[in-house]
Amino acid sequence: MAEISMIGLDLAKSVFQVHGVAAAGQVSIKRQLRRGEVMRFFAKLPPCLVGMEACASAHYWARELTKLGHEVRLLPPAYVKPYVKRGRKNDAVDAEAICEAMQRPRMQVVPIKTEEQQAVLSLHRVRSLLVTQRTMLGNAVRSHFAEFGIIVPAGDGGLGKLIVLALDAEDQSLPQAAREALAMLAAQWRETDAKIAALDREIVVCHRANPDSVRVATIPGIGPLTASALVAAIGDPGRFETGRHFAAWLGLVPKQNSSGGKDRLGSITKMGDRRLRSLLVVGATAVLRHRQKEKGTWLAGLLARKSARQVTVALANKMARIAWAILAHGGTYREPAARAA
What radius of gyration, in Å, describes the C-alpha atoms of the chain? Predict the structure, then answer.
């Protein structure tokens, strides 16, 4: 068997697929590995190039195989898919497609995240899940109270009144059976809210311990939550050539359908991390709310010809570029001279 120079590894929970090729391109090995066999298999191999899709558990396996001396490349799944042979979809074909994709000289790779980066991102993802659950619980409480004719204003204040009412055993405005059910929802809402507050405190601690995150938070519209998530997700800013490439990675640039010298731009691509993009747009909305009455600024000129939502997305794009510049070149945010005057 020729010496293996490149391996495509299709990850799974229990059964992994290996597709290895030699330097000349001929297939050297095709086999399945149980989870317990993976490390033993790669420990016996001389150092080679190993490719995997950047999916669940990929960063863990990349770190482990790197310790064995192998060079690991994580490829975006969307960029591997074109190399899957038409009409066939199984683990062996996927592993072969990873090998094919790795041979492309301009193939984009995903940096391997450290355990610290993944820990911070876990905080953000768990928080995002809990926020979704809290919203669902709040909407359920409102809708059930509405069935009994009890309506409160929108916002946290109105919902807070319903939570207190649901937990008040002395109140007689609801039938007993309904009160017991709504009391469960209200208690779960409070518990979820407390967990979110605890995660917020932990994220702030991580933010303050990271100098890069502190510097990014000097940008208007970016607070500890957004800064911490951006720094943990971006990893090495040097993998992006410019700030525009970073904004494109977040899905904040317009789609292009250009041909024949005519530029046709559409809505933003939304190709990146939805959660990061949402945080930036929300921050941009807050900035626009406080600065929309200013005259002679970039925002004022944009508002004169674009809708408010388009302006917030454009501002989110600009914030992302500034964040990349700070991470790539150092320093902190400085107000433009015209505004500082």
Answer: 25
